[in-house]
Amino acid sequence: MNTIIERRSKPRTLPSRLIRLDEVKRICGLSRASIYGAIKRGTFPPAVKLGRASAWVKQEVDAWVEEQIASTRRKDRS
User: Fold this and answer.
1) Domain assignment present for 39
2) Separation of alpha carbons 54 and 29, rounded Å
3) What is the pTM of this model?
4) On the CB side of 29, how many CA atoms lie within 13 Å of its CA?
5) Residue pLDDT, tens place only, 6-38
6) 57 lies in a domain?
């Protein structure tokens, strides 16, 4: 019984939420082909497979957008 209590009492880090492709496209402004191309190149967060469906961790997509903004601003200052 202690084992069950110990498992439940350990803090979990859960993603903020999972979002589908349409919302990813709205957030980042990229097309489906651009998103999957960037995933293939390793420059965009990969999707999480949910059976036959795909979803993305919203925090990862938001972080990607923030990095794009920061990268552009760094280039502007140079």
Assistant:
1) yes
2) 18
3) 0.76
4) 4
5) 556 566 666 579 999 999 999 999 999 999 999
6) yes
